[in-house]
Write a structure and sequence with these properties.
Length: about 80
């Protein structure tokens, strides 16, 4: 791993600081992940795995309808409880 230094605006640093605390990680790790996701080419194995994952639950009959489940959550007390 190589070390580098970069300058961030105060607003960007504050945003990353809050996000890092919420995710219990470091600002450096957030920056590494963002750079990797944006600039590193996706390996063939990773692309194949992601394509295989798309629609994985589509034909499952044992799972409830996700639309009904989400709407039920939105009507309940969950949102009010989370915004306290």
């Amino acid at each position: 791993m190589k070390r580098t230094q970069l300058y961030l605006s105060e607003d960007t640093w504050n945003y990353l600081h809050v996000r890092a605390r919420k995710q219990r990680t470091s600002i450096s790790e957030l920056v590494r992940l963002a750079v990797r996701d944006k600039y590193e080419p996706m390996s063939a194995d990773r692309r194949e795995a992601m394509e295989a994952f798309v629609g994985l639950r589509r034909d499952r009959k044992d799972l409830p309808d996700s639309t009904v489940y989400i709407r039920k959550l939105r009507k309940g007390e969950r949102l009010r409880r989370l915004t306290r």
